[in-house]
Structure formats: C-alpha cells, structure tokens
Amino acid sequence: MSYPKALEGNPKVIFFTDFDGTITLQDTNDTLTDDLGIGYDARRQLNVDCLANKITFRTVFHDMMVSITKPYDYCIEHLYKHVKLDPYFSEFLDWSLANNVPIVILSSGLIPVIRAVLEHQLGKERANKIDIIANHLVTDKSQKHDCWNEGGWGFAFRDETDFGHDKSKTIRPYAKHFEGKAPGERPVMLYAGDGVSDLSAARETDLLFAKKGRDLVTYCEKENVPFTLFEDWSSILAQTKELYAGRSLESLAKQGRQEAKESK
Q1: In principle, which of 46, 116, 194, 222 could form an S-S bond with 21, CB 3.0–4.6 Å?
Q2: Each residue's pLDDT tens digit, 127-138
Q3: How many domains does the chain divide into?
Q4: Counting Cβ atoms within 10 Å, is residue 76 exposed (0-12), middle (13-18) or buried (19+)?
C-alpha cells in the first residue's frame, strides 16, 4: 500500500503511524535493549540525549541494537512473550479495511520484527493488509550492514539521514502528489507517534496524534508543533471516523489543542 499504491481507490484518509510504543504497548526495540542489551538506564539516557540534540537518532538506534547479545530467533520469541498491541488497534484495523483507509507503518525498527509481532497478534492474513516501511534485517555478515551484534545478526538503515529512516521523506511523495489540489480533492493524511523516531514526521501530515506522556509530546510542546493527544487507539478511531464523516480538520485540531492544554 505504499506510494503510489495506497492512492488506488481514491481513499478519503491515509493513516501513517509509528509502530513501537504507538501500535504496541511496549516498544520492541526498547524491550530487547532493556532485557537483552545495555539495560533501561543506558537506553533511556540515549533517548534523553537525542531529545536534547546531543546525538542523532541514528546513533541511538545503532547503540541499542549493537548491544543485544541473543540470536534473532530468541529475540522474536522474547517479544512474543513481552510485547502486546494496543487493545483497540485491531478494531481500528477492521474499520480501516472496511472503509478503504490505508494504514502505512513508518518505523525506525526492523521490517521482519514488526511483521512477526503483527502476525503473532493479528494473524497473518490481517497483518498482511498493513504496509511496513522500515529498516532492514541482516542475518549474513557478508551483506552490507550498519550494525552487527553478539547475537549474530544486524541491520541496514533505510537511508543515510541522521534518523536512519527519515519518515518525512517517506510521507512527502503523497503530499506532492496532491500539491495544488483543494482539500476535498485529496485524502486527509494523519500520523500517530510517541517517541524520538517520530520527530521527522511531526510536521508532515494534516493532523498529528501524539501519545500522552511520551517524548513526542515533549518535543511538540518545546517546538510549538500542533498535536492531538491520545492515550490509546479508541480515541484515534473515534476521531478518524469523524474526519471520514466530514468533520473539519480545523475543528478537530482545535479540540486537540484544548485537550492537550487541559492535560498539563
């Protein structure tokens, strides 16, 4: 469903979303790093330093993944036990499939890891309805890679940017496709995220959903980036349905600003 296939059928809404900590309750990369790598304190300090612009997210992700000491299959089994999807995401998926709303996951994680967790939680058929654009797993050290760990696997970044996967570069072709069109002649583009990997996407869509209490909210408040607060996918589903039914972006954004202000 990635560009341009996601535009087939003239969807009214295209939903871009982060995966870890947004669709999932636990971040897969953080879970592996905290449990099988450098641990919570060191990993959290990397995120804090990234928010303070001391290091790039590319460095954060590299240092997390290189610290993991277990084989890939062991890591996947560990994630099956410790990572769950938001309980309302399945309902959102069903609604999106019934209403021609493409879901495009934009992640700084690894495609096979995301796919495995989705299939485990949703079943293979439903999971395969979701497009995933992310970094690449490498299991053969002779292949080009950006990281190799003691567990005997690694990865290659999607691009050469400071993010490793600059999500803004993935979103922009959609916006460019409809450049100059009136609002009613193009789909509404939405994004949901929670953390430092989402900073590059924060300004790229018509409406940004940011998860309450997470680093993306901190960034948006610091940089004066408009956002709508969410706690789980039940509110995202309700508000996306309203947009689909014709509610204006302006009124929903205004409501989001008010709710964010009241939550402080």
Answers
A1: 194
A2: 999 999 999 999
A3: 1
A4: middle
